[in-house]
Amino acid sequence: MTIVDLLHSNGRTRAYRDFLLGRSGVVIDILTYGANTLVKLDGSHQDLPAGVRRWSVHRDDLAVEAVAITEELSAPSYRAGVTGTGSEAVLHAVVLSESTSLCTEPIGPLPISGWSLPFIPASPRACTRCAAP
Ligand SMILES: [Zn+2]
Questions:
Q1: How many angstroms is it from 97 CA to the middle of ligand 1?
Q2: 13, 6 in Cβ contact below 8 A?
Q3: Within 13 Å, how many C-alpha atoms sit on residue 58's CB side?
Q4: What is the distance between the alpha carbons of residues 59 and 96, in angstroms, rounded to a whole number?
Q5: 76 CA to centre of ligand 1 in angstroms
Q6: How far is CA 55 from the centre of its chain?
């Protein structure tokens, strides 16, 4: 994200307007029912406004390049891995770089190499142990 304005943010943040405008970083939390965000600025420590890396900035003051902030903040996403075939197939949740599912089943490669499907807990074929919160 980039801080493009400071019209809506709180007074403490606005006081550093000249230092904060144009800064980039990442949104690490959503505050006060989604109106404000907690952002973590990029850059070296000496370079930060007042030496502070984390700022509360109103979301309307941000230009967010990456989509779906809330999805990034919630549970990590998993790709689907399959055990069994045909009507016996069960979909498991697998961390992207791993070959073992959350329920510790060893997962074979998907039939179509190079594809990764997201694991959808609500799917009728989803493994109940992987889908449990
Ligand atoms: Zn499973």
A1: 16
A2: yes
A3: 13
A4: 30
A5: 16
A6: 19
- 114 Cα to the center of ligand 1, angstroms: 21
* Distance set, CA 44 to CA 51, 80, 97, 100, 120 (Å): 9, 39, 30, 38, 39
Tens place of pLDDT per residue across the chain (133 aa) = 899 999 999 999 999 999 999 999 988 887 766 788 889 999 888 889 889 999 999 988 988 775 544 444 445 567 788 888 878 888 888 876 677 888 988 886 555 555 567 788 888 889 999 988 6
Assess contact for 11 and 56: CB atoms under 8 A. Answer: no
**CA 61, 62, 66: angle at the middle one, nearest 5?**
165
Taking the centre of ligand 1 as the mean of its atom positions, its distance from the CA of residue 80, in whole angstroms, is 9
- The CA 61 to ligand 1 mean position distance, Å, reads 42
d(CA 37, CA 34): 7
Dist. CA 68 → ligand 1 center (Å): 26
Residue 93 near residue 130, CB atoms below 8 Å: yes
Q: Which residue is associated with the tokens 């329920």?
A: 103
